[in-house]
């Protein structure tokens, strides 16, 4: 069970405390929430006690009048009770609002199989795939290759959008489109996903549903006049497709694949890992989203990982699968694998996909349920997603791994049908 609800926090506070500690977070939030919850329950008891007294007095007034007795003292008491109840109700609503707000700040409880560790250094490499491409020369970083081959214009991108924006140009734009179509075709034709083309702007409650808000407000682009947010990933609109709905068991599992641009402020990002295509404010991604039953979600998680891996295998790129530890785990995830590509030009492993099982965490926030049986009480689905995959670092790794001594770049066989048969990207003469 990975979702956080009132019952879990009230009856299993030690388990929640342990989960927060594994994630490297203090348990002050839990103490604050428990104090608010106790206050709310005390106010509720007081309201119920006074309401019962109000009902008793209300019933006694007509009896007094019928007996010819003075009912004014009871009427005064009734007015006092009503005023007390209104005051307590006002306090209770304020406490309830604060309690609800704090509930949204709790991260998911890590799954038992998630490695325990403080930071990325404790992540566990699960396996490797593909072979490094032999190079008998000093490999160049992708930004040098892209500029020499006239694939990307970083300078004019910065002129138009600022740092973190760029233009794909000519065959660079064609290669970007080829990667997107290639990935969508694999996932829809071979892996059974239904293609979705989602809105790129969403309402605040939609961002709350998937866990971006309220915790990561500063990382999002917001349209102030319309209270809409630019999506940081297609995960947000696609997961919320079924918000406030009850699905039938026979509909599950649901597999959805979506292309979208992604918009991220990336506040505070700097350093070597931000050059070229490594960290952008706008980038493209093919996202995979699943809705499953709780019983099948971890089998579906492994299958989701293999679906994303297929892209890297077809492109014959060297990659590895890494299990994230508790200290590096995303806010909403119970378990997560990262897919990382080796990029020889920057001598780094580049993460191109996070493959996460959120269990019921997002479903509870977005109220997505299903009926295990036609007459059964609705239960929360489990939601999963993975990048299938993100294009910028995929493009970077592709250019760096397939570069030749003369600065040209060979197009992988699997992509050539999407490039009108272009097999080599060559520098301009």
Cα-to-Cα separation, first versus last residue: 61 Å
Q: List SSEs in N-to-C order.
A: HHHHEHEHEHEEHEEHEEEHEEEHEEEHEE
The dominant shape is elongated
Tell me the Rg in angstroms: 28 Å
Strands side by side in the biggest sheet: 1-11-12-13-16-10-9-4
Question: Number of helical runs?
Answer: 12
Mean of pLDDT: 95
Characterize the biggest β-sheet.
8 strands, mixed
Structural class: alpha+beta
Strand count: 18
Helix content: 25-40%
List the helices and strands and how they pair.
Elements: H1 6-11, H2 13-22, H3 28-66, H4 72-103, E1 124-129, H5 142-148, E2 152-153, H6 154-161, E3 167-168, H7 171-190, E4 194-196, E5 201-202, H8 204-210, E6 222-223, E7 228-230, H9 235-239, E8 245-248, E9 254-263, E10 282-292, H10 297-314, E11 319-323, E12 335-343, E13 348-357, H11 361-366, E14 368-371, E15 379-380, E16 382-390, H12 391-401, E17 409-410, E18 424-425
Parallel strand pairs: 4-9, 8-14
Antiparallel strand pairs: 1-11, 2-3, 5-7, 6-7, 9-10, 10-16, 11-12, 12-13, 13-16, 14-15, 17-18
Helix pairs in contact: 3-4, 5-12
